[in-house]
Design goal:
With about 120 residues, the protein is mainly beta. It is built from 1 helix and 9 strands, in the order βββββββββα. The longest helix is centred in the last third of the chain and has 14 residues.
């Protein structure tokens, strides 16, 4: 499975890493006046990006609050998706209802499955 070029990942504990195909490289963040965190990338490439804001595990389910930047559209989307065992649900990843470009949708699904080992 090939991961997209760059993904920003951070949890509620503010642990931040930017991953480039299994290689961790430095990144930093800052708190904006709105209270949101912003990732400052030290690499010039800005492709599709998945940011895990928070997640909760309940039994065989995982609820994931995430942001996805779709490079093809130049837009950021924030929604919640859910794993029920190995199945991933949510409009953001649905093949007909997703607002994401097809490439971004597929890369996001692959990344989430890899990150959560599902």
């Amino acid at each position: 499975m090939v991961l997209p070029a760059f993904f920003a990942v951070y949890s509620q504990k503010n642990q931040i890493a930017m991953v480039e195909k299994s290689k961790v490289i430095k990144s930093s963040y800052k708190m904006l006046e709105t209270g949101e965190e912003q990732m400052d990338f030290q690499e010039g490439h800005m492709g599709n990006r998945v940011t895990i804001i928070d997640y909760t595990e309940k039994g065989i389910s995982i609820y994931v609050d995430l942001e996805v930047f779709d490079a093809a559209q130049g837009k950021m989307y924030r929604e919640e998706v859910r794993f029920l065992d190995d199945l991933l649900y949510g409009d953001l990843v649905h093949d007909k209802r997703s607002p994401l470009s097809e490439t971004c949708r597929i890369e996001s699904i692959e990344y989430l499955r890899t990150y959560f080992d599902r």
